[in-house]
Amino acid sequence: MAENPNADAADADADTEAENPLTHVVAQAKSGLRRDVAALLEALDGAELLVPISKQPANARDGEQMELDGELTLSPHLLPDASGEPFAALFTHTAPLDPIVQALGWTTDGEQLKVCSLPARLALEMAREVLRDARVRGLVIDPGAPSELGLSRNELESLMSGRPIPLLAYVRDIPEEESERTLIAEEGDPLPEELVETLDAWLDSSDDVQGYRVDRTFNPDRDLEPHLTLTVLVTEDADRRALFQSVTEAIEGKVPPPGYLDVLFET
C-alpha cells in the first residue's frame, strides 16, 4: 500500500515508467494485433498492477506487503469517461494518476489517495468482478498516458481465459510485411445492391479513381471473422487520404456484417 506521489516525484516516476516492462507491453498491445495481445498475456506473469482505492483495507499498513490469504476485498475508484460512463482503472505506473487526482479529487478514506499493488492477474480478476456490474463499461489501463489501453468486457474475459484476440477498436491497418498472411475468404452472399450503387457512383465522381474490386478477406492476427476489403485502383498522384475519407463516408451504414471494411489502394 502506498500514497500517490506528488509532482516532486515526477522525474523518478518517469524513470520507473521507462524501466517497467509491463508498461511497454501494454503500449504495444494498442496495435490491436493478436500477437501483441498474446505478448501482454504472457507478460502478466510476475508483473504487478496498481489499483487506486477509495477505502483502505482493514489491517493494511502503508508500504507493507500483505499475504493474500482468502478473499481480498478492495474498493477501487471508477473512472468516468467524457460522457460520465464508469470504467474500471488499473495502472502500470503512478504518473497517470496525478492529473486524475487533480481533476476528480480521488482520495482514500477522505485523505491522500493510496494505491494497492497487486499481482497483475489478480488485479485483472478484481477488474473483472467490477465489470459484473453492467453499468461499468470496460477496463482502461494507464488512462491518459501514452500506454493507455482500453478493454471491453468481452476482451477482458478472453484475456483472463488465456485466449488473446485482436482488439478491433485499435486495429487499423494490416502491416505490409504481413500482407501475404491476409487470406481471400470464400465468397459469401452477394454484395448489397445499395453498396454497389454507392461505390459505382463514387467511382464516377473522381477522376483519380480508375476502378475497384471487393473481396472477403481474413487476417488471423487482426480479424475475428472474414470481412470485406475494398481495393481501389488510383492514379499515381491521387490524394489517397482524401479518397479514403470520401469513400468511407459514402458507404457508412451500407456495409454488411461485421459492419466494416478495409480500404486498400493500388496504382
Can you give a write-up of this model?
Helices cover 30% and strands 22% of the residues. β11, α8 and β12 (261-266) form a beta-alpha-beta unit. Strands 1-6-2-3 form a four-stranded antiparallel beta sheet. Strands 4-5-7-8 form a four-stranded mixed beta sheet. Mean pLDDT is 85; it is low at 5-17. The protein is an alpha+beta fold and 267 residues long. The protein is built from eight helices and twelve strands.
Protein traits:
four-stranded antiparallel beta sheet; alpha+beta; 267 residues
Shape: elongated
- Helix and strand sequence: EHHHEEEEHEHEEHEHEEHE
For the residues shown, what is the average pLDDT? 85
Rg on CA atoms, Å? 23 Å
Distance between the termini: 59 Å
Counted beta strands: 12
What portion of the residues fall into strands of 2 or more residues? 15-25%
If helices are DSSP runs of H or I spanning 4 or more residues, what is the number of helices? 8
Report the major sheet. Answer: 4 strands, antiparallel
Spatial order of strands in the largest sheet: 1-6-2-3
Helix proportion range: 25-40%
Structural class: alpha+beta
- Low-pLDDT residue intervals, each spanning 5 or more residues: 5-17
